[in-house]
Input
Amino acid sequence: MPASAAARLVFCRRSSSWPQHQLFRRALSQRATKTKDAPAASAVVPPSELPPFDYVPQPYIGPSSDEILAKRREYLSPSIMHLYKTPVNVVDGKMQYLFDDKGRRYLDAFGGIATVCCGHCHPDVVAAIVEQTKRLQHSTVLYLNHSIADFAEALASKLPGNLKVAFFTNSGTEANELAILIAKMYTGCHDVISLRNSYHGNATGTMAATAQSIWKFNVVQSGVHHAINPDPYRGIFGSEEEKYARDVQDIINFGTSGNVAAFVAEAIQGVGGIVEMAPGYLPLAYDMVRKAGGLCIADEVQAGFARVGSHFWGFETHGVVPDIVTVAKGIGNGIPLGAVVTTPEIAKALTQRNYFNTFGGNPVCTAAGLAVLRVIEKENLQENALLVGSYLKQRLNSLQDKYDLIGDVRGKGLMLGVEFVTDRELKTPAKDETLHLLDQLKELGVLVGKGGYYGNVFRITPALCFTKEDADFLVDAMDYSLSRI
Output
């Protein structure tokens, strides 16, 4: 790895602790989670100090965690959650690291939910934001400004085929909502097919497309059919892609008029627990949907922007070219920015009526987006995601060989998942153990995400500047924490 890449270390971590009840601790101590050949717990030592990093945050002089929590409880929606019982008061960030109000550094292996792709407060991205803000913070897309046009051109250059026309939004939910609308307007049909276990957003259309009850309110959600998820680990057909694809055709034949508006899918399900599709499934599904007159939408909100390493976009790993691509999160490295990219012909469907987004394409946000693309290229972050991600996955696989609690390791590049189960054969979700491990990692200085329908999957989606030293610290911390269960 280039020295410049190694120098870009930045950790992100959440400080909090979950109270562990005595009965739970007793159950953990009695459960044999390691294989018979695994070393004794005493043989595993805590990881050494975080990799060296040349950055010291300014002293924090703001309100305390208790004061912030009190204001949140009084003035913010009770639906806003935090990951730990005692949440981390994050006040500073640099590259793959986060710092709390006490100045403690954490390795951020979650990346703001697969959002911080270049690294926290990357100087090039910050400079682009500051310079644009000094000149023009906002006007309207009704006036000309080069920022939005320059970014649209650069984004189009990263996409295959005739995917070259962009409409900018503020988030992934907005992008997916708009993509579904465009598909309906273009095809004249209303039926949409998505996959079970998927997550596409929390607005009207995207909540309907989402297929996990924990993310769906009890409101009318019509016109969406959820196909069997082609999940090689938990799916009913294993890795037999043709059997999964047959369900898509059955939905078209028996659940619609025979014509559909769209099929929407993530290349790797993020919120669903970093679930990969059975190889060969997506080309079959795309073909069936297109024969039914529908458009194929690739939700690249989490898997896009070089995160999978081998390719710039997740859908490219499946050998397909979608009709519409939705992006967000990594597109702005933390700036509120999303986009729908499609062909000129399909884009015309949106001209049937007036459609407007006040902040979509804001000059500050699009300046940040352009800077992100340049940083990915300049610092070879896609290559780094492949090299470090492959190394990290290899080390995680070694933990799976060592501990029975790990049921599956999956994902590509720096979008990896580790699923915990109490019984490998039955694949019983280890929900309590996952929470315990999450907290133990936090105590050691590592922050990871949690996902999956059962909440038993570690979501590892760090900034693409993550290093092998970071990967070693993460795995060593997991090893130590698992050895103590």
User: Anything to note?
Assistant: The first strand starts at residue 90 and ends at 94.
